[in-house]
Design goal:
6 helices, two-stranded antiparallel ribbon, globular, single chain, mainly alpha, 162 residues
Length: 162
């Protein structure tokens, strides 16, 4: 996985791309314009706290494209903290197991069982760090809501509380 050195982008949701230069725009249509400065400052602080750390982790782990896709797949099928149906939970468990099994099979054939198990452990830890960053972002969205920067009609906020 190659990171482009000049790209400074964070995905605020599945549909929201944000850069340091566009954080103020992210709050441009907020219900209470007087909160834009404080909300943008808080967002920048979160950015500086998380983005460099996660990018350094990605560089250190250096996941292949397939590994990165596996991490995304595991994140997609993770429903921690969400209220979902039993059927969806079963699908999540099944697909997560399939992804992990595929990685295990690939590693067994390429780098061996022991190194493969270590690599899967590293990738799962990496995925959990992404999950923690996602949960922090959701918490921040709640704070923006309390501040008045988001309301119940703000799409990005509504996507986080689904």
């Amino acid at each position: 996985m190659k990171l482009l050195p000049r790209r400074r982008v964070l995905y605020g949701s599945y549909t929201t791309k944000i850069s340091l230069d566009t954080i103020d725009d992210f709050f441009a249509d907020c219900p209470d314009p007087s909160t834009v400065s404080a909300a943008a400052k808080a967002f920048r602080n979160r950015w500086h706290e998380n983005v460099p750390k996660l990018r350094a982790l990605i560089r250190k782990v250096s996941p292949t494209d397939d590994e990165f896709l596996a991490i995304i797949g595991l994140a997609f099928w993770s429903f921690e903290g969400l209220q979902t149906s039993d059927y969806l939970e079963e699908l999540g468990v099944r697909y997560s197991a399939e992804i992990t099994t595929s990685l295990s099979d690939h590693y067994r054939a390429t780098i061996g069982v022991e190194k493969g198990a270590i690599r899967i452990g590293v990738l799962l830890c990496m995925q959990q760090l992404f999950k923690i960053a996602e949960m922090e972002l959701k918490s921040d969205y709640e704070i923006y809501h309390i501040m008045g920067a988001f309301d119940e009609e703000t799409l990005t906020y509504r996507l986080q509380v689904l």
